[in-house]
Amino acid sequence: MNKISLIIRREYLTRVRKRSFVIMTILGPILMAALMILPAYFAQKSDENRTIGVVDESGIFFKKIPDTDNLKFTYITEEINTAKNNMNKEGLYAILYIPKPAYSVPTKAILYSDKQPGINIKSHIKSAMEKEVEQLKLQASGINEDVLNSIKSDITLASIKMGEKGSEEKSFVEVSMILGMFSGILIYFFIFLFGAQVMRGVIEEKTNRIVEVIISSVKPFQLMMGKIIGVALVGLTQFLLWVFLTIAIVGIFKVSNPGTFSGSKPQQMMTDNRVNPATANTYQQQANNANENQGILEAIGSIDFGVMIGSFLFYFLFGYLLYAAFFAAIGSAVDNDADTQQFMLPITVPLILSIVMAQYVINNPDGPLSFWLSIIPLTSPIIMMIRIPFGVPFFDLILSMVLLILGFIGSTWLAAKIYRTGILLYGKKVDYKELWKWIKYKG
C-alpha cells in the first residue's frame, strides 16, 4: 500500500506542476465565466438608443407603435424614396414603410436599414402592428375586445410529488431535466478527458522504457492503481478549482458591474397616463414573466444541493476509476496512439449510448430501461446522475452505487491481467484474441 501511495503522489505532483495543468486551471474558469458574463455584458452594451422613422401610407399606425427605453419611433410625412435618401442625414437607424393596403387593412411592411436589424426590433414592430390590425378587425366585426380578452385563460399546472407517508412536495420537471443533463454530460466529459490522460501516460512511459525501471521496484498492479488514482485526484483538484474560481470571477464581475445582470427595464407603454391599446397585453405578459422568475427561484431552492454534489462526486470518481482501468489496459497493450482506435470502440459505446438514451430517461425516469441503465456499472455514472434530480428510490441508488464499486473492482482485476503482460511488450500488434490469452493467463 505504501508503494501505491508513493506512485499516487508522484503522478499527482508531476501533473499538477505541469505548465498545461496550470494554464488549463486558469483558462477553464475564465472561459466558463465568460460564457455567463459576456452575453449579459454585450446585451447591455448593444441596447443603444435608436430612432426609426415611420412612413405610414395607410394612416392606421400613426403613433400606435409604442416606444421603448432604447427604441423611438418618429412619424414622417415624406414620400418613401425621399425618406430613404434622408435617413442618414436625419440620424435615423431605419425607415419603416407601411404601404397603402389594396383592401381594408395592410398585411405587410418593409424595414429599410443600413444594418441588419435585430430580432427584438422586428418582433416589437410586428407585434404592435398585428395587435392594431386585430383591433380593427374586431371593431369591423362588432366584437368587443374586452369580451374576447375575458375568454382567454392562463392555466398553471403544478406538479406535486407524493411521498410514501403522505407527504407532498412540489417538483419542477424543467429544472430537473436541465440539472440532470448538465451533470450527465459533465461526467461524460471528465471520464473521457482524464481517462485519456491515463492511457497516454501509460503509452508514454512504455515508449520511453521508463516503465522497465519502475516495474523493478513495484508490481504492475500497484503501478496501474497508483496511476489511476493519482490522475483521479488531479482531475478532482482541477474540477474543484474550476468551480471555485468560476464562482469567484462571476461574483467579482457582478459586484463591479451591478447593472449587467439586473435585466432590462420594462418598456415604456404609457401615453397620457393611459395604457396604449396596442401593447396593453404586455402588462399581463410582464406579470407572467415575474411569476415565471419567481417559479425559477422556487425551483432552484427546491434542489437538494447536498445530494446532487455528493452523488456527482461519487459517480464522477468511481465512473472514472472504472473506465480509467480500461484506458490503462489499452495503453499498456499498444505502442502508440494510432493503435488504440481498435480497442476504444467497446469502451466508448456504453458512454455514447448513455448520452443517446438521455432524452428517453428524462421523459421516463422511472421506466424499466432507465432503471437498468442506471444500475449497469458501464452506464450508471451518467444515467443515474440524470435520474437523481427527478427523485430516485433509495434502494435504486444504493444498488447502483454498490454495483458501480463492484464494477470498478472487476474492471481493475480484468485490466490488471492485461496490464501486467502488455506493459513490457514492445513491437507487437495486439488483437482481441491476444488480449483474451492474457486475461486467461495464470501465474
Q: How many extended strands?
A: 8
Q: What's the total helix number?
A: 16
Reading side by side through the largest sheet, how are the strands ordered? 2-1-3-4
Query: Structural class of the secondary elements?
Result: alpha/beta
Low-pLDDT runs = 263-283
Largest sheet: 4 strands, mixed
| Multimeric organization | single chain
Arithmetic mean pLDDT = 79
The proportion of residues in beta strands is 5-15%
Quick one: overall form? elongated
* Rg estimate, integer Å: 31 Å
Order of helices and strands: HHEEHEEHHEEHHHEEHHHHHHHH
Ends: how far apart?
21 Å
Approximately how much helix is present in the residues? Answer: 55-70%
Which structural traits does this protein have?
16 helices; alpha/beta; 443 residues; D-Maltodextrin-Binding Protein, domain 2; 64% helix
Brief overview:
By secondary structure, this protein is an alpha/beta fold. The protein has helices at residues 2-16, 19-45, 80-85, 119-141, 145-151, 173-207, 210-215, 220-256, 281-301, 305-333, 341-356, 358-363, 368-375, 380-387, 394-422, 432-440; strands spanning 50-56, 71-75, 94-98, 110-113, 159-162, 168-171, 270-271, 274-275.
How would you describe this protein?
With 443 residues, the chain is of the alpha/beta class. Among the domains are: 50-138, Periplasmic binding protein-like II (D-Maltodextrin-Binding Protein, domain 2), CATH 3.40.190; 180-251 and 300-443, no CATH class. The chain has 16 helices and eight strands. The protein has helices at 2-16, 19-45, 80-85, 119-141, 145-151, 173-207, 210-215, 220-256, 281-301, 305-333, 341-356, 358-363, 368-375, 380-387, 394-422, 432-440, and strands at residues 50-56, 71-75, 94-98, 110-113, 159-162, 168-171, 270-271, 274-275. A four-stranded mixed sheet has the order 2-1-3-4. A two-stranded antiparallel sheet has the order 5-6. A hairpin with a 5-residue loop joins β5 (159-162) and β6 (168-171). α2 packs parallel to α8, α6 (173-207) packs across α8 (220-256) and α10 runs parallel beside α15 (394-422). The longest helix is centred in the middle third of the chain and has 37 residues, at 220-256. The model is unreliable at 263-283 (pLDDT under 50).
